[in-house]
Amino acid sequence: MPIAEKRLILKNLDEPGYTADIECYIKHGGYESLKKAVKIPSAGLINEVKVSGLRGRGGAGFGCGVKWSFIPPASNKPILLICNADESEPGTFKDRQIIYKDPHQLVEGMIIACLAVKAHLGYIYIRGEFPGGAKILERAIAEARQKGFLGKSVMGSGFGLEIFVHRGAGAYICGEETGLIESIEGKRPNPRIKPPYFPAVLGLYHCPTIVNNVETLCAVKHIIAMGGSEYARLGRPNNTGTRVYCVSGDVVKPGYYEFEVGRITLGELIYDVCGGIRNGNRLKAVIPGGSSAKILKAGERYKIKEKMPTGSVFEREIGLEDIVMDFDSLAAVGSMAGSAGVIVMDHTRDMVAALANLNAFYAHESCGQCTPCREGSLWMQKITSRIMRGDGREGDTDLLKSVADNIAGRTICAFGEACSWPTQSFVTKFREEFLAKTGAAKEKNSEEGSL
Amino acid sequence: MPPRPTTPAKTLPTDFLAKADETVAHYPFSARSATLPLLHLWQEQFGFISEEAIVWIAARLGQVPIHVLEVATFYPMFHREPFGKIHIKVCRTLSCELAGGRELFETMKRLTGATGDEHGPIHSPDGRYTLEFVECLASCGTAPVCMVDETLHEKLDTPEKIKACLDTHSTGGEPCPIT
Q1: Which pLDDT tens digit goes with each residue over A182-198?
Q2: How many angstroms separate the CA atoms of A76 and A80, rounded?
Q3: Which CATH architecture has domain A241-346?
Q4: Could you tell me if residue B8 is inside a domain?
């Protein structure tokens, strides 16, 4: 019996006859949250989101209300809000559904967020590969302006707000919030040196800036609709609300599914929701939170600590299938919930080939600003490519790990970690596959196929 | 490489200029922010980012040309040479590769006749097609996918589906010349 989805954000967008225009959205209760929000003072809105426990859906999982409260109260500079719609993490395709099928949900969430942080100007930074999505959002914004939800006075409240769509042009690094800001400023998207850690302090045009993911802003709309404390009852403590999980790879029914955070395990997601492994094959590995998340290997056992309602902590051992799909549980098993993009691989897959594919991605997408990342990502790609060509050298397995170990923690932005985690985890967990393709062992195994 | 089309007229079309003005107006704090949007606008109108594009956009935004050039050369979607009439981007990244992305690319190569160094875009000899392997297109659940011009095509896992996809985009309504 498959576990029932809890569709909050995806509620309407796949309904027959549901369209992206404002009339349809309003017919389905759209902009009711905004009507409520204009009557609530800014601090009240921020408090609702804090109470809701909402954590960012882009990858880092940072508390949304906390992020909002980092805006310096005494600043006399204009405050800006950016929606990060640069969905580029391999394995992730949730924002695409929202933007193309239910754009007003995002626009409404964004208007509420702007009211909360007192931003009078907002940009939606949408990846260049969504040209249709950019047009849909522009039309949605124009419709919202016509209805008085945007413009000189949002719903007659006297609060002026304009939102514009800004298209990226094919660079993954623009998903990093300070790289994204540089990109909107019309520059190469080289991420900024931290501190300051938060653009809320120093962001776009050196003004306080909030950057939120598409799904996060949609959640804001629902938080205002149902109330922060009610939203916090969904999911689990510290992992509240719902999340859209994107499953791809070797499952019978790949797709996007929305559940309460942490109310589903990885095993239930793969076997019950997605119909199990394709072609009657066996599970080999899962990347649980977008391509940067460390890979999980079938058959692995994890020791996790669990806190009882009484406060006592006890340790128990779980398998891959038992991992709860929330921020804290995936961190506890050494990976991350990230963007909730789940890539499943069956027992026929070659892990060296899979890593070679990811390494090519990261080598292509490194912005080139920091030497360890620029040189390291390319070096790792060259090693995995030569192993795939059959030219793997003795010691390449350890060399890969060593290169990766020397990138993480030595770069301006988290891309350094993002590009080294796949190599570190693949090489550690599937070491024998790498050894079999390098050095003296490779001749014996040369008949093995590719991915 | 397709033949280089004539550079755009020295006097730019009025509708282009109007769109450029509207775009710049979206950035009240800094005109330089319109660099990417104007590069998009120019490429959509004239096909590629020529030397003239760099100079004109810089002048329009009160920047030196290097500020525009460094942006145009960083972002993969901007190209400095003309492309074919039909631009195909095949997703190269993991979920698509697991579902047959490499086969999709090879079939597209055969159907379009595009050849060249596959580290970048490759072109068909008649200048009709440009084929490119690109990174994740964010539709991993319906892999393998490609974009033909602005349209996403999903689950292209058989040669028949790939051929049909290409046929819908062939200019003038005639089917793709190679089978």
Answers
A1: 999 999 999 999 999 99
A2: 12
A3: Roll (3.10)
A4: no
